[in-house]
Design brief:
The protein is an alpha/beta fold. It has helices at about 10-20, 35-45, 55-60, 75-85, 100-110, 125-135, 155-160, 175-190, 280-290, 295-315, and strands at about 1-5, 25-30, 50, 65-70, 90, 115-120, 140-150, 195-205, 210-220, 220-230, 235-240, 245-250, 255-260, 265-270, 315-320. The structure holds NADP nicotinamide-adenine-dinucleotide phosphate.
Length: about 325
């Protein structure tokens, strides 16, 4: 039984703990918070025995693995500490804030013989494999448009002049890191790493990107990635081939896939509801830990995603107007 400790006391950690409760081979035995009282209250509320406010102490306790759901800039240091303590790590997306940091962390995980996995739920959603299967029916792919654009209720706090981690540049917040990352990970998982990347974005008052686009080129086709935390899109993602077009209702959690062919036929596939969107990543993590499995492929996808993000930042033309 894998004894998992959690880092972070927000809603996503609660959801992860629920899923661990539904998964065989793993149990949550400890929770970390920077604040002892909050940590104890959190642990009690989710039925976890151990509560820690000192990370080093938790890492030297009787645990096998750590789930990290702190703000993006904290992941690297916390994951490194866990890996060096010989603990397996499941770290929330985006795993770290640059490809170079991820490569260093993967090397440390290899050296310490532990599993390091990004909790990228999209990758472990069965819907992605169905999309992969359907690609063959579309003819030569010419355009890919992946979109995750959802106005965050926390944007209202930004508009009110408040500091919010997910919109804070010091926490590596912003729409690309929070939502764009799902589209980019799906893109590199389906099609590999693009040849070229360009980007543009709109900057909000806190200094992060509130909405943006990336344009990627592949041999024979182009891919556009659209992401936003300040507006909402009603349009599906699309993969356009010369013979047909695939419409994906939500790229981060596909539930309905429609193929419209050149001859006018249209087929919609409703995907079986998954019990919880986080199930796939937890099962993958358990399998890797239990079998001493090889996470190299998963880690390469994270690395490729972070290289695209690095390139978007380097090659982007941010709108200079802060809104
Ligand atoms: N997979 C998904 O569906 C999903 C959904 C939401 C978020 N996420 C990811 O989960 C992570 C956390 O996101 P969130 O929105 O929950 O973040 P958050 O609420 O800003 O922070 C999460 C936790 O980290 C701790 N924390 C807060 N500020 C911190 C700081 N400055 N330094 C260190 N720790 C701090 C807090 O716990 P204590 O104060 O108790 O220590 C807090 O509960 C992000 O990487 C995000 O991308 C994933």
């Amino acid at each position: 039984m894998i004894r998992l400790a959690t880092i972070g006391t927000s809603a996503i950690t609660r959801r992860l703990i629920e899923v661990v409760g539904l998964t065989e081979g793993i149990t949550v035995t400890a929770a970390y918070s920077r604040d002892a009282a909050r940590g104890r209250a959190f642990a009690d509320s989710v039925g976890v025995v151990g509560a820690f406010s000192d990370l080093a102490t938790m890492l030297s306790s009787d645990i096998d693995a750590v789930y990290i759901a702190s703000p993006n800039t904290a992941h690297d240091e916390q994951a490194l500490a866990a890996v060096r303590a010989g603990k397996h790590v499941l770290v929330e997306k985006p795993a770290v804030t640059s490809a170079a940091a991820w490569d260093r962390l993967c090397a440390e995980a290899r050296d310490h013989g532990v599993v390091l996995l990004e909790a990228m739920r999209t990758e472990y959603d069965p819907g992605l494999d169905v999309i992969r299967e359907l690609l063959g029916s579309l003819g030569t792919i010419r355009r890919v448009q992946l979109s995750y654009q959802k106005r965050s209720s926390r944007y209202d706090q930004v508009l009110a002049g408040e500091r919010v981690n997910i919109f804070d540049p010091a926490m590596a917040g912003g729409a690309l890191m929070d939502l764009g990352v799902y589209c980019i990970h799906a893109l590199v998982s389906l099609f590999g790493e693009p040849d070229t990347v360009r980007g543009a974005w709109v900057t909000v008052a806190s200094g992060v990107d509130g909405a943006g686009s990336a344009l990627c080129t592949y041999p024979g086709f182009v891919a556009e990635v659209m992401y936003s935390k300040i507006t909402t899109s009603r349009l599906p993602s699309e993969i356009q081939g010369e013979q047909g077009t695939l419409l994906i209702d939500q790229i981060a959690a596909p539930s309905s896939l429609t193929v419209e062919m050149l001859d006018g036929t249209s087929t919609t596939r409703a995907l079986p509801a998954v019990p919880h969107v986080l199930v796939g990543e937890v099962e993958r993590f358990v399998d890797l830990v239990e079998t001493s499995g090889d996470a190299t492929h998963d880690q390469h996808l994270t690395a490729a995603t972070l290289r695209v993000i690095d390139a978007i930042r380097a090659e982007s033309t941010p709108d200079q107007t802060r809104i």
